[in-house]
Amino acid sequence: MSAPKLVHRPSSAGGRAVTINGDIAGLARDDRDLIEFLRQAGTYDAEHCLDDPHWIEWRGGRARRHEAA
Questions:
Q1: For residues 25 and 41, is the Cβ–Cβ distance under 8 A?
Q2: CB-count burial class (<10 Å; 0-12, 13-18, 19+) for 25
Q3: Nearest to residue 14, comparing CAs of 32, 28, 26?
Q4: Element housing 10 (H / E)
Q5: End-to-end CA distance of the chain
Q6: What is the pLDDT, as a whole number, of residue 32?
Q7: SS3 for 46?
Q8: In whole angstroms, what is the distance from residue 30 CA to residue 47 CA?
Q9: Closest Cα to residue 5, out of 62, 58, 60?
Q10: Cα–Cα distance measured from residue 16 to residue 61, given in angstroms and rounded to the nearest whole number
């Protein structure tokens, strides 16, 4: 079973698409953007979930890296 929050591979222009429970949350250009998306989705203590694979699945690149591919 995959994590309910997906951070997709970095785009060619930079940033990573974020999907939460199957819905597109937006484009995260850094961890602050991702934390805000998580908070808007009701994730408690969002900043501590970034490295937890039960909460977030990082696809197609290193975790917490948002630079252009």
A1: yes
A2: buried
A3: 28
A4: strand 5-10
A5: 27
A6: 98
A7: helix
A8: 12
A9: 58
A10: 10
Q: Residue 16's closest CA among 25, 32, 29?
A: 29
**Sheet of strand 23-28, all strands in order from the earlier edge strand to the far edge:** 23-28, 16-20, 5-10, 56-58
The token pair that represents 51 in the structure block: 């490295």
Q: What is the pTM of this model?
A: 0.91
| The residue to which tokens 């850094």 are assigned | 30
CB distance 11 to 69 below 8 Å: yes
- Cβ atoms 4, 25 nearer than 8 A: no
pLDDT of residue 3: 79
Digit-by-digit pLDDT tens for the chain (69 residues) are 567 899 999 999 999 999 999 999 999 999 999 999 999 999 989 999 999 999 999 999 999 999 998
